[in-house]
Design brief:
Elements: E1 18-20, H1 23-35, H2 37-52, H3 64-67, H4 72-78, E2 93-96, E3 103-106, H5 108-114, E4 124-125, H6 129-149, E5 160-164, E6 171-179, E7 183-187, H7 197-205, H8 210-216, E8 222-226, E9 228-234, H9 236-249, H10 257-271, E10 277-284, E11 287-291, E12 306-310, H11 318-324, E13 330-332, H12 343-350, E14 355-363, E15 366-375, H13 383-386, H14 390-418, H15 427-439, E16 450-463, H16 466-495, H17 499-516, H18 523-542, H19 547-558, H20 569-599, E17 603-609, E18 611-618, H21 630-655, E19 664-669, E20 675-680, E21 685-689, H22 691-702, E22 707-708, E23 713-714, E24 720-725, H23 728-743, E25 747-755, E26 766-772, H24 781-795
Parallel strand pairs: 1-8, 19-24
Antiparallel strand pairs: 2-3, 2-9, 4-5, 5-6, 6-9, 7-8, 10-11, 10-15, 11-12, 13-14, 14-15, 16-18, 16-19, 16-20, 17-18, 20-21, 22-23, 24-26, 25-26
Helix pairs in contact: 1-2, 9-10, 9-14, 14-15, 16-17, 16-18, 16-19, 16-20, 20-21, 20-24, 21-23
Length: 796
């Protein structure tokens, strides 16, 4: 047991008079002498020292005598009731002058870890000097407030110091706790008083302000006598983790020179070993990133600060084995014993690693990477160390996530330069291509996104005679607008006959006669120009002829749509009817798609014009794991046919509530031969590649106009589904689906098998045509739900 001397931690003036004295400890022996018979003899020997060695118990500002070799055995004897000899090598404790790191006595453990050769407290405070010194002053004030004023403030600042372990060279953190049971606080001058409520409130609101404390509790009125027992607690794990976390959350990236250096230092401090090296292995998509410890690239950048390789290269390595483990870690006791044929094992062996510890990192069960600890010693199992690494692993996960998020942002930026929206089913492939572009150093040169051997599923819901209904709506609106214009001209002519009015009316009659023959291309624009450039400017002048003319002009303008500046009633009714059909069908398909994706992930897009087209691509190349079977294709085809039946029922149910009772037709195009599709950056969409494959695109565009029965009838008819095919095996497959859906009440008998009239570039096509049971009692719940939603929208 070694006595200490005054150290630099006491360089700040302490406002309270403070004297060291063992007399308060002597009182403990007086109590023990009467209570503990076994200690009675020893207690009497200690109590005798008060008369034999009175200087031992005198109060003094100096600890020199108590630290002297002469007094040392006597001090140990007095302090035997305070400091247990059995814990001398384990207990971090010392006895000091009140609030001065001026030690009278220390345990061997305290001396070994916390004192330098001169017996002074070593290390440094982890807080600023003023805050460190004020912490002991605050402790004194709180002790006085508790003893003299009954004020129990639940607040204490325990000093923390950091030292360097003399054996390992790593840093250790210790927090000091003051035991003041042997501290006497004596009032030197002034009268006893009570604190006013305002003073108490002021202290509570300014508990860290030493000036406020000095104003209310004046230090010169008190004297501190006795000793304080200081106990040090190793808080290295808490502080190391906290400091690393604060650094990372304050803007320093873990994937940087400073971040990796701090991570290595923190792990070494935590484990008390300076020979450990820390590595990080990050995962992004199908790529792995081994973080370099030097990290000379841009801060936070996984790409520039790592060696990167394909995830498949991990096969057969300890990293895969670590992932398979149910435990939170995987220990390799001898790296030299690993299979050197694996390139990653060979890399570890070339680096001279003796043993290692792998801690897989997860974010909500999603693999993020691996925290790797390298050790020089071989044949050692480091499983016990893993138990201390839980918090560090969580921080490493956070650091990797931050860098992965930055890389994901860069990947998104590259993708957004090429396309605005990517379907979720193929998002992985775009991310893969963008990541490869970033790794190559040219984010602008993204590799072509191509999917080979994919099966197309096309279906179409078209509005029957949409162009006829549209033209009729336009003609009706134009006739009404001409009629209103003629009323203006007639009223004006009655007020003031002018030949020009007759000429304008003549031209209107010519327009109306032309409309009898049907609307031709360019007619709508010509008539709109006539209204805006000739008629309406003249109306302003004609309105001055009298009130009757003015009312006619007002009646004309009141019928014009403010957005289009023309009569738009019938067109609006038609457009709203089309919009309701398209919106209802599109929403229904989106809803059903959520279920279809569970059958098998596939690319899906829909296009709305005068109806809705649905395009699906499915195949092994469109899923990340490459797992595909024709069973999934048949499942999707049956789903598509059933959904088309439900769309037909939905459209039929909508018809009665439409402003224009439009009818719809339904078509499915079948192709057993897979295609190759490529994403076009120009069109920002997938296009079919190959001369034979382009035939499929031609079919999609032309088959809705196909004729059957010697050209006397359109293939597509309301209430029916036409299934166009090229080969007999396609027809056989769909006949099975039709028979099944007839059994379920979706379709009716009979099934027509029709030959299509030759189209430009297309010959030999056939189609199955079957009627949908529109009168079946009860619609599918999904259709009913959508109709109810649609009704609420109309009411609103």
């Amino acid at each position: 047991m070694v006595q200490g001397v005054t150290d630099p931690f006491n360089s700040k003036d302490f406002p309270f008079p403070s004297k060291v004295s063992l007399r308060p400890v002597l009182k403990t022996w007086q109590t023990n002498a009467g209570v503990h018979p076994l200690l009675a003899g020893f207690a009497q020997d200690v109590l005798a020292l008060e008369h034999e060695q009175p200087e031992l118990f005198e109060a003094s500002e100096s600890t020199a005598y108590l630290r002297s070799e002469q007094a040392r055995p006597l001090v140990e004897m007095v302090l035997a009731s305070v400091m247990s000899c059995s814990e001398d090598r384990r207990n971090l404790a010392a006895v000091m002058r009140p609030y001065y790191y001026d030690f009278v006595y220390t345990t061997a453990a305290f001396k070994d870890l916390l004192l330098d050769r001169d017996g002074k407290l070593k290390g440094r405070p982890i807080m600023e000097s003023d805050r460190f010194y004020s912490s002991r002053e605050l402790h004194a004030y709180i002790s006085i407030a508790r003893r003299y004023f009954g004020l129990d403030l639940d607040f204490e600042k325990h000093p923390i110091i950091v030292t360097e372990d003399t054996h390992t060279g790593v840093q250790r953190y210790y927090q000091f706790y003051f035991d003041c049971q042997y501290l006497e606080i004596n009032r030197r001058q002034g009268q006893d008083r009570k604190l006013k409520s305002k003073e108490i409130e002021k202290l509570q609101q300014n508990i860290l302000d030493m000036a406020v404390w000095r104003q209310i509790i004046r230090p010169e009125e008190y004297e501190l006598n006795g000793v304080i027992i200081v106990r040090a607690v190793d808080i290295t794990q808490r502080e190391v983790v906290s400091n690393l976390y604060k650094t990372l959350t304050n803007g320093t990236s873990l994937i940087s020179l400073q971040g990796m250096r701090l991570l290595n230092e923190s792990v070494r401090d935590l484990l008390g070993r300076s020979d450990i090296k820390v590595r990080l292995l990050g995962k992004q998509g199908d790529k792995m990133f081994l973080i370099r410890p030097d990290c000379h690239g841009a801060a936070g950048c996984l790409v520039s600060n790592s060696h990167h390789f394909a995830y498949s290269e991990l096969a057969g390595s300890v990293y895969v084995e670590a992932k398979r483990q149910t435990a939170d870690f995987y220990s390799v006791s001898d790296v030299a014993a690993l299979n050197p044929e694996n390139p990653l094992h060979r890399l570890l062996q070339e680096d001279g690693i003796g043993s290692l510890l792998l801690l897989p990192l997860y974010d909500d069960k999603r693999p993020v990477g691996v925290l790797q600890l390298d050790f020089p010693d071989r044949g050692v199992d480091h499983s016990d160390i893993a138990l201390k690494m839980g918090d560090m692993a969580r921080i490493a996960t956070l650091g990797l996530k931050q860098s992965q998020h930055l890389l994901e942002e860069n990947v998104r930026t590259v993708i957004q330069q090429k396309t605005s929206i990517v379907h979720k089913s193929v998002e992985w492939r775009f991310q893969q291509a963008a990541l490869n572009a970033i790794l190559s150093g040219d984010g602008n040169a993204m590799e072509p996104v191509v999917f080979n051997e994919v099966y197309p599923l096309f279906s179409q819901t078209d509005i029957k005679d949409s162009s006829v209904f549209r033209n009729e709506a336009i003609e009706s609106d134009i006739r009404l607008q001409f009629s209103l214009a003629q009323k203006v001209l007639g009223s004006a002519h009655a007020q003031k006959a002018m030949p020009i009015l007759d000429e304008i009316n003549f031209r209107i009659e010519r327009f109306l006669q032309n409309l009898e023959e049907g609307l031709r291309s360019g007619d709508e624009m010509t008539m709109n120009t006539f209204f805006r450039m000739e008629l309406e400017p003249a109306f302003e002048q004609l309105a001055m002829l009298g009130e009757e003319v003015q009312q006619a002009v007002q009646a004309y303008y009141s019928q014009l749509d403010p957005q289009y500046r023309m009569v738009h009633k019938q067109r609006h009714a038609y457009e709203q009817s089309v919009l309701r059909i398209n919106d209802s069908v599109a929403r229904f398909l989106d809803q059903e798609q959520q279920h279809a994706q569970h059958i098998f992930p596939h690319y899906f897009e829909k296009t709305c014009t005068d109806g809705v087209e649905m395009m699906i691509y499915a195949g092994a190349s469109m899923v990340e794991d490459g797992n595909f079977d024709l069973l999934y294709l048949r499942n999707l085809r049956l789903w598509q046919l059933r959904v088309t039946c439900e769309v037909a029922r939905l459209c039929d149910a909508l018809k009665s509530s439409l402003s224009v009772p439009l009818e719809t037709t339904h078509l499915i195009l079948v192709q057993n031969t897979p295609l190759t599709v490529r994403f076009s950056e120009i069109e920002r969409d997938f296009i079919v590649e190959g001369a034979y494959n382009i035939r499929y695109e031609i079919m999609k565009k032309r088959i809705d106009k196909a004729l059957v029965n010697d050209g006397t009838e359109r293939l597509t008819q309301p209430g029916k589904i036409a299934i166009v095919y090229s080969h007999s095996e396609e027809a056989r497959e769909y006949r099975r689906y039709i028979e099944f859906l007839q059994y379920q009440g979706y379709l009716l008998e009979p099934v027509e098998d029709l030959a299509l009239e030759a189209l430009q570039g297309l010959q030999g096509l056939r189609a199955l045509r079957v009627s949908v049971d529109l009168r079946s009692p009860g619609l599918p719940q999904a259709v009913n739900d959508l109709l109810q939603q649609d009704a609420k929208l109309i009411t609103a």
